[in-house]
Amino acid sequence: MGELIHLTLKAEPALPVEAESITPDNLRGKNEEKIKNLPVWCGNAQEKIGDYFEVEKEQSAGETRVVLTGECAQFKRIGQGMSFGELVIEGAAGFHTGALMRGGSLQIKGDAADWLGAHMEGGRITVAGNAGHFVGAAYRGKTQGMSGGMILIEGNAGQMTGSRMRRGLIAVKGNCGDALGFKLLAGTIFAGGRTGRHPGANMLRGTIILGEQPELLSSFYYNCTYQPVFWNMLYAELAGCGFFLLPGGQDASFKRYSGDALNGGKGEILVWQST
Amino acid sequence: MLKIINGQVYDPKNGINGVSKDLYIDGGRFVQPVQEAGETIDAGGCIIMPGGVDIHSHIAGAKVNSARIMCPEDHYDHFRAAADCTRSGVGHTIPTTFLTGYEYAGLGYTTVFEAAVPPLEARHAHEELEDTPLVDTGIYTLMGNNTMIMKALQEKDAAKRRETLRSLVSWLLASSKGYAIKVVNPGGVESWKWSAGTVDLDTPVQPFGISSRQILTALAETNEDLKLPHALHLHTNHLGDPGNVRTTLETMKTLTGHRVHFTHLQFHSYGITPKGGLKSAAPEIAEFMNAHPEFTCDAGQIVFGPVTTMTADSPMQFHLHETTGNKWGSFDVEMETGSGIVPLRYRPSVLFNASQWCIGLELLLLIKNPWQIVLTTDHPNAGPFTAYPQIIRLLMDADYRNSVIETLHPKVGHYTHLKDLKREYTLEEIAIITRSGPAKALGLSNKGHLGPGADGDLVIYQPHKDKEKMFASPVYVIKDGRIIVRDGIARQSFGGKRLVALPYGLKDLADGSLSQELAQDFADYYSISLRNFAVQYDYLPRMEVISCG
């Protein structure tokens, strides 16, 4: 027997609130009163979920499902470290949403702020709007960012998307900012639109797939134009989730560049060729 | 008036070895037994030692702070919230200033020396030490790559050269409010700054044509001329290079007869295999130390886990960055030195690291006289100081040591001798290598013992079979007769003393003590004016001058 938990925002707070207590793991099995009393931090003051949200709970079939209604852009760390269930934000989400996530599904219907899915290990994040900087990246000083799972973004993403990523998939249908996949260790990043300066700078391994020809660093060199086998599988897999990559469909061909030659040149950037 | 009764006292300097004895502290110092009533601590069944003395640690100043900025990853998982009398802090290998003080005090250390400060950054170091509570502190002043010293060494007339050096060194010490002369890779840093590669003892260092050997002998002589309380504090050339034992032994032979403290000697006791790999040369070094009682050293023992290496030896740090690919910070301290920072992790499964670990312990076990070797981790280069209790257990418990050797890289036995060593330290020997020995090497007559007149610093430990547990959590730590730690929690927080050595007394030597030529060089090449160079006494509100001679 599952649970459906509704959190409805009373009013958008003026100050940011640290809300890492809002995860399916943490809300499961608690009654409305207990959920209302879970702590959140506003500056150095400890407050409660009930100070910001109306809480309603009902029994349902399937897994635990948490639905937040309202513009939650001031709430940081929602879904941080979640490992199962479903978390839906019917609006915007703040910094670090889904950071350190280990499993389950996190859906954001509005825009997501910076550090979305930072250090994510598993599960899936989907964003209907745009995402901020450092999607799936490593926190300052850490050497490995996202190490598993999937982040799918319908809109645009900011700078340093997938920086120091180790494993997993990030797909952005729109544009990306500078230094996409900076120091990429492995894993796959897709950006359908324009990208900023220096995509793949310092990358060691991994694959960056671009919909538009970028200005590449001189440490990337052209290999060939071909149809990679994995593309069909990736395309079909994401289409199955309702996320359609390039309009050219499954039979697209790509220009392949190797790089970053300064770091061994084992990485690749694939640039889509219109047919 | 504080009275500590029934404790089992270890006070090696006064020849007290585990005897039950009552101790009396009045006015912050140990006194003769008195009848007067006062607060009494019953230490029945407990062990009492003087407060710990760390002879070599990097806890304050420009490079430590740069490392804190460079390494946020050191902070994420290590933090302490503010409590009644303590402030909050973060950091594991490079804790913030207040946390550094609390953690040292929590281990029973009451005196710590910051081991490498360029005169130009001394004000910064003193400001940070002002915010490092509960420990008495001091700084060592870097001089081994100072261009003014090298210029002074060009003087052909030996008597004049000696006189110039004497005034130059005392001016640098007085300007920086330092405690000892620190030499790091003499000549090597300056040479690297000229892109001229590493130096051996006799390589002439541009632009002055002065060699490492000349710098070393001259500074060792000056140290004795000025009758400074501590020996010349020396980090020799070629730190960390396999085969550097040749340089270390040659340096030791050159300085035989002088008072010298060889710091983090583990990093300088490396032999080389035919293929260029690392093997232990600790037995050769220990043999030399055993034959030369004028020398002291500290271990620089490796601790497995994350560390943040930081040193004035910038060429060494560049090399480390190139080998590991880890991030690197490098700084050029004008006419004085360089410095570099590289975070690192020592792993038991890496043969090189495992061998380094064994070499440090070999030195600690093979150097027979405990008064000649001090327990350090060259914090935070070889490990954080918070690992001292773990090292004490390794020294006191051979079975535990052997069980750890089992977990290292399987080939480590081919290149080291540690598994053949059976020695176990006694509590008295531990008291020597952590307190009485360093206090003696530093010339601190009021530290490291519990006799009348000594500073009222002591630690009360609950005996425990696991020596790591025992030394990690003292029951009481008392500083200047005040209880600062009880059951692992800091009970009050106040600033410690700043220990300085001023060979010519309190007279401020900032102006007029440089020769006209050097003053002109200063004006031409330093980024600040001579008037702003010396650290004012206002920066040391609780200063204690340790007498020279």
From TrEMBL, chain A:
Glutamate synthase alpha subunit C-terminal domain mapped to chain residues: 80-213
A GO molecular-function annotation: formylmethanofuran dehydrogenase activity
A Pfam entry, by short name: GXGXG
GO biological process per UniProt: methanogenesis
InterPro entries membership: Formylmethanofuran_DH_suC (IPR017550), Glu_synth_asu_C (IPR002489), Glu_synth_asu_C_sf (IPR036485)
PANTHER family: TUNGSTEN FORMYLMETHANOFURAN DEHYDROGENASE, SUBUNIT C (FWDC), TUNGSTEN-CONTAINING FORMYLMETHANOFURAN DEHYDROGENASE 2 SUBUNIT C
Protein name, per record: Formylmethanofuran dehydrogenase, subunit C
Organism: Desulfosporosinus lacus DSM 15449
TrEMBL record, chain B:
Gene Ontology MF terms: hydrolase activity, acting on carbon-nitrogen (but not peptide) bonds
Cross-referenced PANTHER family: COLLAPSIN RESPONSE MEDIATOR PROTEIN, HYDRANTOINASE/DIHYDROPYRIMIDINASE FAMILY MEMBER
Residue span, Amidohydrolase domain: 39-485
Name of the molecule in the record: Formylmethanofuran dehydrogenase, subunit A
Source organism: Desulfosporosinus lacus DSM 15449
Source taxon at top rank: Bacteria
